[in-house]
């Protein structure tokens, strides 16, 4: 029985920020932030006893996901990205499933929250559109038990069910930055670098109908406890920090 439990927990996940088409305009030449979502997902994976690797394809030379899957045995691959990455994510998900249909494919991020229907569900097992980090934990728990009924999880998108109630978006853990350390020299803001990113709040206190982030925040706004923010800052060695809050000065407005 003990050996069986060890086997169940011996899982590995690959967390991916995909590349985007060369013709897509972006601000990476001016400001290029680390994929903080993947750092948080890595932290939640660790809490579940699941090991993880992070690949940032925007800077990593390893662009062939099949070769990455051949290098280690992965049980789950999770993608996150903005609207510019939707096509890439669908293409990569297809390659993962062609390589091994048993690998669980998960999509999360702002587009999964706002427009989950844009992802190819034939190659994606779970689209996380509510309570992202807690939902990811529940997916890992089911995966470890060999249960692939991910649609039964409240935070996983399904066209036939109502959107889950938002409990809280604020992560319980600090992002696992050591998983991103290989790319640290690339993350910068203007002439400052290397820059570490931090978020002190999530969502938005406003409800503007033209804004992606207002909708992505489910019309709610959460601030992290100030002591928690200070504690995270103490663990950051870099002198330059990029604040990724959409509403950093919300209480001053």
List the helices and strands and how they pair.
Elements: H1 2-9, E1 12-17, E2 31-32, H2 36-47, E3 51-56, H3 65-71, E4 76-80, H4 86-99, E5 104-108, H5 110-114, E6 126-127, H6 132-144, E7 188-189, E8 195-198, E9 201-203, H7 212-216, E10 221-223, H8 226-234, E11 240-243
Parallel strand pairs: 1-3, 1-4, 4-5, 5-6, 8-11
Antiparallel strand pairs: 2-7, 9-10
Helix pairs in contact: 2-6
Keywords:
253 residues, alpha/beta, two-stranded antiparallel ribbon, 8 helices, 29% helix, 17% strand, disordered N terminus
Description:
The protein has 253 residues and is of the alpha/beta class. The protein is built from 8 helices and 11 strands. The protein has helices at 2-9, 36-47, 65-71, 86-99, 110-114, 132-144, 212-216, 226-234, and strands at 12-17, 31-32, 51-56, 76-80, 104-108, 126-127, 188-189, 195-198, 201-203, 221-223, 240-243. The strands form 4 sheets. The protein has a 5-stranded parallel sheet with strand order 3-1-4-5-6, sandwiched between helices. A two-stranded antiparallel sheet has the order 2-7. Helix 2 (36-47) crosses helix 6 (132-144). The radius of gyration is 18 Å and the shape is globular.
Task: Put the structure in a nutshell.
By secondary structure, the protein is of the alpha/beta class.
Largest sheet: 5 strands, parallel
Q: What is the count of β-strands?
A: 11
Major β-sheet strand ordering: 3-1-4-5-6
Gyration radius over CA: 18 Å
Give me the number of helical elements.
8
- What would the average pLDDT be, to the nearest integer? 86
Poorly predicted sequence stretches spanning 5 or more consecutive residues: 1-8
Distance between the termini: 58 Å
Order of secondary-structure elements: HEEHEHEHEHEHEEEHEHE
């Amino acid at each position: 029985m003990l050996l069986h439990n060890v086997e169940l927990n011996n899982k590995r996940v690959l967390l991916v920020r995909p590349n985007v088409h060369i013709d897509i305009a972006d601000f990476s030449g001016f400001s290029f932030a680390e994929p903080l979502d993947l750092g948080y997902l890595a932290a939640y994976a660790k809490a579940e006893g699941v090991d993880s690797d992070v690949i940032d394809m925007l800077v990593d030379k390893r662009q062939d996901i099949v070769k990455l899957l051949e290098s280690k045995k992965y049980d789950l691959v999770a993608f996150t990205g903005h609207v510019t990455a939707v096509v890439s994510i669908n293409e990569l998900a297809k390659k993962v499933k062609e390589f091994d249909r048993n690998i669980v494919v998960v999509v999360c991020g702002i587009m999964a929250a706002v427009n989950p229907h844009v992802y190819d569900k034939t190659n994606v097992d779970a689209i996380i559109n509510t309570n992202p980090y807690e939902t990811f934990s529940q997916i890992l728990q089911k995966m470890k038990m060999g249960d692939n009924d991910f649609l039964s999880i409240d935070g996983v998108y399904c066209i036939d069910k109502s959107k889950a109630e938002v409990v809280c978006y604020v992560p319980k853990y600090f992002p696992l930055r050591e998983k991103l350390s290989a790319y640290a020299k690339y993350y910068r803001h203007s002439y400052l670098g290397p820059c570490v990113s931090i978020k002190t709040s999530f969502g938005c206190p406003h409800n503007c109908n033209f804004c992606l982030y207002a909708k992505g925040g489910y019309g709610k706004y959460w601030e992290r406890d100030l002591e928690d923010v200070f504690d995270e800052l103490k663990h950051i060695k870099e002198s330059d920090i990029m604040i990724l809050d959409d509403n950093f000065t919300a209480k001053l407005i």
